[in-house]
Amino acid sequence: MKVVIVTQYRFSLWNAPESFIHRLRNDFPAVEFVYRPNFEDIEKYISDADVLAGASFRPEQIRAAKKLKWIYSTAAAVHQLLFPELINSDIVVTSASEVHGHCVAQHVLALIFAAARRLDVDVRYQQRRFWGQEELWAERPRPREVDGATLGLIGVGAIGRDVARMSSAIGMRVIAVREHPERGVDWLLPGSPEISHNQVYGTSQLPQMLNEADFVVLAAPTTPRTQKLINAERLAQMKPDAWLINVGRGALVDELALINALRNRAIGGAALDVFDTEPLPPDSPLWGLDNVIITPHVAGMTDKIWDRQFEFFSENLRRFMVGKPLLGVVDKRKGY
What we know:
CATH topology of the largest domain: Rossmann fold
Shape: elongated
Number of domains: 2
CATH class of the largest domain: Alpha Beta
Structural class: alpha/beta
Order of helices and strands: EHEHEHEHEHHHEHEEHEHEHEEH
Strand content: 5-15%
Distance between the termini: 27 Å
Oligomer: single chain
Helix content: 25-40%
CATH superfamily of the largest domain: NAD(P)-binding Rossmann-like Domain
Largest sheet: 7 strands, parallel
Number of strands: 12
C-alpha cells in the first residue's frame, strides 16, 4: 500500500513536519509513505498511490492517480476538492474537521468574550494610553455578561458541536439552524445535563434565529447553498447590538453588505477569522472599522495540531487497511 502526503502552504504550521511522517512509518512499517513538500512532478509519485493526504489536489492529478481509493483532507474544509472528476468517482474523501473542531471552538469562545466585554475598545484605548472608562460605557454595544446570552449557530458539524457544548457549559442559550432539525440537540456530551432552552431550527427558520441571537456564529461548510448566506437581508434580521462571528469560510458572508452594516451600526460588530480574499488586502475597509475584531485565519492554530492529525489519520488508516468504515466521510454531492 502506498500513501502520498502533499502539504504546500504559505503558513509553515499547516505543512506536515518530519515527525509526523516518522511516526507513521514507525506505526505502519508495511505501508510505503511518500512525503512531498510541493506539487512539482507530483504525477509520477501519485500514479500508483492508494491514498492521498493533503488539502488541494487538481482534476489532472486525480486522473493521474490510477489506483487512488481515498483522499484524506488535512483541512476541515473540502469544497476546493469537490470538482466533477472527484465527485463522480468512487474515491472516498474524508475531512479533518474533527481534528480542528476543539481548537476552533475555543477561538470562538475567545471572540465571544472579547466582543461581550469590549476588549477591542480596551485595546484601542491602551494603544493611546487613554483611561477610557466613561467612554467605554458610552460605546454601543456596551460591555455585557455572556451567561444568559443567546448564541445562534449556523453549522453543527465537528466545529459547531464543540462551540455548542462549550457555550452551553458557560450558561449560554444555544439555538442552532441545521438542515436536519429532527436530530435535535445532539451536541451535549454523555452525562451532561439537558439544557431545555437550547433549540434546533430548520433552515427556513433562519430569520427567527437571527432575530433572537446575541452572537451569530458561522461554522458551516462552503456549498452552493451557503455562498453569501449572510447578505444584506440576513444582516437586517439581526439584533442591532448582535455580533457576527465567522470561523467557517469568507464565502459565507457578503463582505460588502457586512461592511455597509458595520458602517451604519446596523449590528453591534463582527469578529472575523476568515475572509473572501486571504490574506485580507491592506486596503480592505474592514481594517479601519472600530466595531470589527480581525484574526488572520488562526482559529485552528495550536501546537497540538500534528499530534491530533496523527491520531485521527492513523485511526482512519487502520480502518482503511481492514475495510472498516472511515471516520469523517464527506458526502461529495452535498459538499460536507
